[in-house]
Amino acid sequence: MWSNVTAAFEKAFALMGEGNTLLNEIVATTLEMSLQSSLYAMLIGVPIGALVGVMRFPGRKAIVLILRTMMGLPAVAVGIFVYLLFSGTGPFGGLGLMYSVELMVIAQVILITPVVAGFTETAVSPAYDAMRESAAGIGLGKARVALLAANESKYQLVATYLFAFARSVAEVGAVQIVGGNILHKTRVMTTAIALNYNMGQFSLALALGIILMLIVLGLNVVAAVLQAGLKKRQ
Amino acid sequence: MIEIGVKKQYGERVVLDVEKLRLENGRVYAVMGSNGSGKSTLAKILAGVLKGEGDIIYDAKKPRTGYMPQKSFAFDMSLTSNMLLGHAFRSRKEYKKKAIAILEEFGLRALIKKNAKKLSGGETEKLALARLMMDDYGLLILDEPTAAMDVNAVENAERILKEYFDRVKPTVLIVTHSPAQAKRMADELIFLNEGRVAETGPVGKLMAEPGSEELKRFLSVNF
Ligand SMILES: Nc1ncnc2c1ncn2[C@@H]1O[C@H](COP(=O)(O)OP(=O)(O)O)[C@@H](O)[C@H]1O
Ligand SMILES: [Mg+2]
Questions:
Q1: Model confidence, pTM
Q2: Phi, psi of B90, rounded to the nearest 5 degrees
């Protein structure tokens, strides 16, 4: 077991060191997918979450409950659902998006948006409670207050983005189904890992997993540095 | 003129039951009473941030209302940006000048670029009050606006408020625990006891000769 892990680390650094073109391609596809998925999920999910977070009416709890339940959407089920929609006989079959990075992004946006919205709601709601009276006291309108509550939660929103990105990078179920793990086209880190595992190449699979973690680590370091800079400026 | 007839209860408990309270335009009303007597509840309902049963009737159009909650809040941005919150889409430059002038009056000039979250309790309270001074309100509701300030800051804030009152002539409801402050700032006193208006009238007169036992007791401990 340990020899496998050691070999995996060695392989991971060797792969990165030698500038393996196939690896670079897979990493590039992964980033292309994940940066888009996480960005679109934020663009849709944050406004929804912020809006629900500043709503105060009897049906609100039900909406929050639905949101939180959707956070647990099974990736494979979303994959199948999107597959059925976009496959040749599906309603959107004509778009010809099957087995494309675009469709992987669509599936992941469906998967991740509820998570973003749920986290946003959880952060914005108490921020809204804390500021609500003071904001009303100077005559600020609802939309303005929603923005301000999101501003109060900006560090949680950064964390939410990082989580969205990490989830996208690490997700395999949906992208495998709608992307098909096609070499030079839709192969990403996770589907490559799964493939190598299926072929019994454990240490290579693990090595790819290590590289994937390093990508997530890299983004987190960038975010931490940016946050520290932001805090210092004030 | 504003006529207030409101009731508020949480479960079985009635925390505010004001049958008829009249506020004359341009007059300053101090609200006093022990903890839990319903002062903040009254302020919130009048400010429109809390719903109660009953009505608030205005003789004319509902006035532009400014409200400072008991717990002051600093928005996560610079002091200047805090001041400009109500003026997002108006001529920024002119308002910025005004903002800085007001912050200076409150002794916050050195901090204007700082993030408001870093302010102390007293400073946050000054900022919350300063933020209200950015606008001219027809009705101003202040819930213990100087409770966290030191003696000098209280004096300063009262001077700024008085200037504002003279210039803008708003109807004012100011909740305070200090009879001295009520005397300095207000024309009329509203004394609440267990959610009801126990007594109301000119400040000086009520303090000199309190009619109710409750006010008598209240003043003897608080003066
Ligand atoms: N959300 C609430 N639920 C239950 N009781 C409340 C709530 N808000 C206020 N109260 C009660 O109402 C009473 C009046 O509160 P308040 O108006 O804040 O008093 P104060 O005169 O000290 O400002 C208090 O006893 C308080 O505990
Ligand atoms: Mg109070």
A1: 0.87
A2: -105, 175
